[in-house]
Write a structure and sequence with these properties.
- The chain is α/β, with parallel strands linked by helices.
- It has one domain: Spore Coat Polysaccharide Biosynthesis Protein SpsA, Chain A (Alpha-Beta Complex), CATH 3.90.550.10.
- The chain is 41% helix and 18% strand.
- Helix 2 links the parallel strand 2 and strand 3.
- The protein is globular.
- It starts with 9 loop residues before the first strand and ends with a strand.
Length: 266
């Protein structure tokens, strides 16, 4: 069942690559929660990024009995950024939420992000760094060290007023999310930084919202290789954002929108 945008409150976008071992449990949680919270006025979009573990067969069976579940499959693995982009551009909800397929952030935390949007911000960013009662973060020592090191490097090489740029739980107003992801050409793990940097350059408001999060076994982050690749990409980020903005100006004939965005923290 494809609801028109006016009848779809939220699209939950899940990028997935070989997640047969972790995604089914999260999908069950999403189904139970969203049915209670939104009735039939929601959709779930899973983007299978070229999985080879049988995830496609599982999703096909799920979609047959769950009318609001849409499955999009990439023929080959393109990267997390590409999978999120595909899902965000296909989402029909007035709100677009993307979440990691491992379920590290409980789906019920979307309510916190939704409240921020309702208060007027354009983008609500789940944060494992910002602290708030009821937003417990449980992670291994090694993951905590990696996250801290990456944050330090990001804020020294690409200053952003957002402390946790990499939490895989972010919500956008529909028109904002579509505009940003249409311009995003980052297919890997740096896509969060690209989108947030571009959003702030365009003057969109961002609020960092504390969310509950727990470490889930099976992460594909490679402790040495991935951070090094990310760090190299940071050096080119501003130039790529500049090119994206120029392309947007050419496409729309609008040379405005270069004001610095604002951020809020809870």
């Amino acid at each position: 069942m494809n609801l028109p945008p006016s009848q779809c409150v939220i699209s939950v976008v899940l990028p997935a690559y070989n997640e047969l071992g972790r995604l089914p449990e999260y999908l069950d949680c999403i189904r139970t929660y969203c049915q209670a919270e939104f009735g039939g006025a929601y959709e779930v979009v899973v983007v299978d990024d070229g999985s080879s573990d049988g995830l496609d067969e599982y999703l096909e069976q799920m979609a047959a009995g769950w009318s609001v579940l849409s499955v999009i499959r990439h023929a080959t693995n393109q990267g997390k950024g590409a999978a999120v982009r595909t899902g965000m551009l296909s989402g029909r909800g007035e709100l677009l939420l993307f979440a990691d397929a491992d379920g590290a952030t409980p789906i019920g935390e979307e309510r916190k992000l939704r409240r921020a949007i309702e208060r007027g911000v354009d983008i609500a960013v789940g944060s494992r760094v910002a602290r708030h009662q009821g937003a417990a973060v449980q992670r291994s020592w090694s993951r905590a060290v990696q996250a801290w090191a990456f944050r330090q490097f990001v804020h020294r090489s690409l200053p952003l007023p957002i402390r946790d740029t990499q939490c895989g739980f972010k919500m956008f107003r529909r028109e904002v999310g579509r505009r940003l992801f249409a311009a995003c050409d980052e297919h890997g793990y740096l896509f969060d930084l690209f989108v947030l940097r571009l959003a702030l350059r365009l003057g969109y408001t961002v609020e960092e919202v504390p969310v509950a999060w727990h470490d889930v076994a099976g992460s594909r982050l490679r402790p040495v290789r991935d951070p090094l690749a990310m760090w190299r990409g940071l050096r080119q980020m501003d130039a790529r954002v500049d090119r994206a903005m120029r392309s947007m100006e050419v496409a729309t004939g609008d040379s405005t929108g270069r004001a610095d965005g604002t951020t809020r923290r809870r």
